[in-house]
Fold:
Amino acid sequence: MRASIKSMASTVAFVASVFANQSFQPTAPQSDKAVIYIYKPKTYGKDIYRVQANGERLVDLKRGTYFAYVATPGTVNLVAQKRPRVGNVVGWAVGEGLNKSVSVEAGKTYYLRKSGAVKESFEEVGADKAIKELAKCKPLSKFEAKQ
Structure:
């Protein structure tokens, strides 16, 4: 009985160490597409942003999450609106939000981080820094409208 408990404890410790050492690995883009990782680190507020690319609704980005957007080469216009909350409903109504245009090339990967608390923006981030931050974030699935 003791041997099996020790064995089970050893297995649990091994599995926990494997998951603790997992890191984010970006997906290589297809040769005719680009990938844009849009993310919000855990350090930036509780606001939720509804993100669109070229008018297409993508995700509701919240603290500690990311979305991998597969883009056609060219200019991608990103817009992120804060979701309504008591206290900022007026800001939502007048169209306050984050805007960023990114020129993307086929076969390349880009990283955009929602940054700032007072002066908010989408900031292009280098791969090394972004990968470290993305390792602490959870992936989001694309928004799908209910039929």
About this structure: The chain has three helices and nine strands. Residues 27-139 form a domain with the Immunoglobulin-like fold (CATH 2.60.40.10).
